Amino acid sequence: xxxxxxxMGSLTAILFILAFxxxxxxxxxxxxxxxxxxxxxxxxxxxxxRFLVKNHKLFGALAGASALIHGVMKxxxxxxxxxxxxxxxxxxxxxxxxxxGFRKMKGKAGVWLKVHRLIPYLVFLSIFNHVVVKxxx
Length: 137
Ligand code: HEM
Ligand code: HEM
Fold this sequence. Notes:
Elements: H1 2-20, H2 22-37, H3 42-54, H4 56-78, H5 82-103, H6 111-133
Helix pairs in contact: 1-4, 2-3, 4-5, 5-6
The structure holds protoporphyrin IX containing FE (2 copies).
């Protein structure tokens, strides 16, 4: 059970990165799309971009779900862990914000999107703290 809980933590990090790649992949396309179109990697890049953009909400929602499973399992074994609780809160906030932007704003830019683009950096810092440096645990 302990391994399964750990797996859920690592899975969250992977799914979160997949959801985050939505932005860099679009930025690369915008900047280098024309140059890539001239190379033999054109098809591969476009498939990758389509895959990441199309499944963005799914990856985000799954990251939220696995984070919750990991959090509940670890909290019931170890009690309150501030670094984990902070990471979980940020990921949940990100998911709720994404849901709001999608349903109420129909994905159009707004303050929600600025915040939705910023939170991932805080999450990465928070995961780094939770898993590697443990400035607070
Ligand atoms: C309230 C929420 C959380 C609590 C209480 C918590 C607690 C813990 C604990 C106690 C461990 C050590 C595991 C062990 O050795 O048995 C751990 C590991 C870990 N946690 Fe969390 N965590 C939470 C949220 C998160 C979130 C949101 C992420 C998102 C990425 C995450 C990612 C990880 C990872 C990657 C590990 C290392 C797993 C491994 O050693 O293989 N945790 N967590
Ligand atoms: C929890 C992990 C998530 C991360 C790391 C994340 C990250 C991002 C990023 C970086 C962008 C900006 C893309 C750009 O600049 O074009 C974005 C856009 C967006 N996100 Fe998320 N997001 C997450 C979850 C969600 C969820 C759960 C939903 C909805 C249910 C959602 C809905 C959206 C929408 C509608 C956009 C704007 C349009 C689009 O790019 O598809 N996000 N997200």
